[in-house]
Amino acid sequence: MFRITQYLRLLARAAREGDFPPPATPRGPAGDDRPAARPGPVVIWNLIRRCNLTCQHCYALSADHDYAGELRTDEVFTVMDDLRAFRVPVLILSGGEPLLRPDLFPIAERAVALGFYTGLSTNGTLIDAPVAARIAATGFDYVGISLDGLRATHDRFRRLDGAFDRSLAATRHLRARGVKVGLRYTLTASNAEDFPALLDLMRDEGAQKFYFSHLNYAGRGNIHRGKDARFAATRQALDLLFDRAWDAARRGLDEEYVSGNNDADGPWLLHWLQRREPTLYARHGAALRQRLQAWGGNASGDLVANIDNLGEVHPDTMWWHHALGNVRQRPFSAIWSDTSDPLMAGLKQHPRPVGGRCAACAHLAICGGNTRVRAQQISGDAWAEDPGCYLDDTEIGLDGSNPRTVLTTPFRSRRTVPVVVEAGAGA
Ligand code: SF4
């Protein structure tokens, strides 16, 4: 996840006070000058696969029926204890639709009691006033509600008339009870035109967070990858997102903007700053770059993890076709620390062993080589360049003689599309 607002607030402060702070090395408790112990990963936990909707871009390929073999409550509690001991800071409870799980609230109450930052990722259609009150009483730190566009677009994406109205009502019920709410939006060619209006809706509704997701190639999102907004539309959308986040940062608004599934957003922020605020870029561009490098881009398999409804552990939610082990057989902490799996070994490597234009890119230290599952879904090679990178050669420091080696194609089936290697391609 790329925390746009975090950087733009620093920039707004630097514009006011003249000083852009360098990244801090995390330290231990007060008086202890040693580096702090490394935290565990943020865990996105798909507790249930069942969903009352069948969205076009669902990575979980969920449907409205029960799935056999899902983790029982006591098993979830056991895993949670291990996660806590492993210094996992954040649990995002997801699905399917997590509110369909009868024990969701006991699970969430335990997560809060154990000290996790506890988030809920939901389609919002099941949140009426009593459910919102229960969410507030449970102590969720954050609720993310998916909206794919305005009414007509959203209902078409969600394949349910009235889904938009129900999700919007959920936002209002939660806000009325003081729960932090964010809108979650995935850009595709079919909903790009609603994006500006959704940003306005966020502000009008008092939602405090906007999560902008690029389409990733997993589940139904893989099948629909042919509709992925082309690079020009992506760049335009990101410029608008950065403009809005910059406006909020300078005005000190309680609005947070983040993006996900495309770590090229980090380098693109530098390009945006250079074009929009050349004086600030000249003064603080180097310090911003340093900060972005400290972030380091894609963290799947390292500081981001996924547990699915059956207890299988994956490098992130887009890697459901690659299981690392099951929490019924081995603790999560043991599975996550095990680098005998070549994919995990590569994901934990710094820099990652990426090829093509990613290997030659001037921004590799910021972006981390981006989203490996996209490379794997298109080419069969998890270490090929990311075909979802929307920066051109000049923008990544190449002279234009390195044509793309992996080209995005419409969905057929996994591993049937050969790597396209053109003469003069990079390493
Ligand atoms: S070329 Fe690769 S490393 Fe560079 S910005 Fe694009 S995706 Fe990231």
TrEMBL record:
Q: What does this protein need as cofactor? A: [4Fe-4S] cluster
Which SMART domains does this chain map to?
A: Elp3 (SM00729)
Key word Mitochondrion present in the record?
Answer: no
Which Gene3D superfamilies is this protein grouped with? Answer: Aldolase class I (3.20.20.70)
InterPro entries cross-referenced by the UniProt entry: Aldolase_TIM (IPR013785), Elp3/MiaA/NifB-like_rSAM (IPR006638), Heme_synthase-like (IPR034480), HemeD1_Synth_NirJ (IPR023992), PqqE-like (IPR017200), Radical_SAM_PqqE_MftC-like (IPR050377), rSAM (IPR007197), rSAM_sf (IPR058240)
Q: Which residues form the Radical SAM core domain?
A: 37-251
Give the transmembrane ranges: none
The alphabetized UniProt keywords are:
4Fe-4S, Iron, Iron-sulfur, Metal-binding, S-adenosyl-L-methionine
Coiled-coil ranges from the UniProt annotation: none
Q: What is this protein called?
A: Heme d1 biosynthesis radical SAM protein NirJ
- Provide the species name: Pseudaquabacterium rugosum
State the gene name recorded for this protein.
nirJ
